[in-house]
Amino acid sequence: MSAFVNIGAEVLEQMVANTDESVSKMSYNQPIMLVFLRHFGCTFCREALSDIAKRRKGIEETGTRIVFVHMSDQETADRYFNRYELAGATHISDPECKYYMAFGLVKGNFNQLFGLHFFIRGFQSGILEGHGTGKVIGDGFQMPGVFVIQDGEVKEHFIHKLVSDRPDYLELAKCCAIA
Fold first, then answer.
1. pTM (2 decimals)?
2. What φ, ψ does residue 33 adopt, rounded to 5°?
3. What is the CATH number of the domain that holds 60?
4. What is the residue range of 166's domain?
5. 135 vs 159, higher pLDDT
6. Which of 12, 34, 85, 123 is 20 to 30 A removed from 28 (C-alpha atoms)?
7. Helices 43-61 & 74-83, crossing angle to 10 degrees?
8. CA 68, CA 42: separation in Å to the nearest integer?
């Protein structure tokens, strides 16, 4: 894990989910997989939701709780979570991207957002896998990332180099598996 992922306790305390719990509090009860999504119109955001839905049981069997961070309002997010069989998902609305910034997630450059890999993977995800695309809901330049937090500390992370990167969510959750 990189040393730069040092999130202050005050940030984790400020991050309050739709369940009225802070990320800090949740992380002392069990490991938290904090998934920072791109905008819901992004095919790779939709792919991430699909991937997590397919692996949800395995992730939760490690004792890890999944918490999403998104840039839309709560109602819009709930519609997407329901669409991807993630009804009842724990999530945090961050339209100003202040938590994205606190976790070191940057705005993507041209190559990260529109390089050759983007078009190849975009065709695979959007067309072949059927995730499609939609209206930009949030900041279309915002890069995503995944952080596993336990006892108020980042234990593992995946920071996308390209918007089309596809993390192994189950492997990330295994870092803090509760025996």
1. 0.87
2. -100, 105
3. 3.40.30.10
4. 9-176
5. 159
6. 85
7. 70
8. 15
